[in-house]
């Protein structure tokens, strides 16, 4: 067999893949009642909506500064509490820290369960428990942050250098000493990086939690959309975009210094 024959993919494999993708596309469109005619019929509505959003109502900025600050505070508190709770969960989920499957598997199952529930649904649940306001949003973002940070951190723990851990075991270090002096120093930069990254995600997530009454700028999204004030919606979107870009730039620079 020549080198060209080795590199060239089999035609049967290629056409099988194409046919499989076409079948999946057709079945998905059929199941969701999606058609190309509906897609093209709706395109002009996008232009009409965008025309109503411009020019933005720049005077509305002064009304949304405080809600935006509340959104950032919710994101910060959610990321901080989530990071604190993520430490024990990540350690329990790391198979090189606790080798017993009776500890590791339930911890990972809880993490999977947390990540399965959307943040908007979490906010709706906590609104039902605590009532309207920023507190349900903070709770929702705390659980949301816990799922992300713990997942990324335990994967980093499982990738650490085992040399220092084996040396500590050889001199008789107990489990706590093993964790404090062998595991945490190796994953601390990654853990801080994940926490900052989660704060950045939380700002975006917190912007829509107000749609279910969990405080922040989302309440103003709901009000302006409800009254068809699209020029004000455009103002809020632009304001949110500027804040997110600024936080993204700062967090990226900090994470570059950490790792």
Please tell me about this protein's structure:
- By secondary structure, the protein is mostly helical.
- The model has no long low-confidence stretch (mean pLDDT 86).
- It has one domain (61-256): Orthogonal Bundle (MetI-like fold).
- The protein has helices at 3-7, 11-31, 36-53, 61-93, 101-116, 119-130, 134-157, 163-170, 175-209, 218-226, 230-258.
Main beta sheet: none
Care to count the β-strands? Answer: 0
Q: Total domains, how many?
A: 1
Distance between the termini: 47 Å
Which architecture per CATH?
Orthogonal Bundle
Classify the fold: give the CATH topology: MetI-like fold
Task: Indicate the overall shape.
Answer: globular
Radius of gyration, whole Å: 24 Å
CATH class designation: Mainly Alpha
Q: What topology does this entry show?
A:
Layout: H1 3-7, H2 11-31, H3 36-53, H4 61-93, H5 101-116, H6 119-130, H7 134-157, H8 163-170, H9 175-209, H10 218-226, H11 230-258
Helix pairs in contact: 3-11, 4-5, 4-7, 4-9, 5-7, 6-7, 7-9, 8-9, 9-11, 10-11
Considering the chains and any ligands shown, give keywords for the structure:
MetI-like fold, transmembrane helix, mainly alpha, 11 helices, ABC-type phosphonate transporter activity, 259 residues
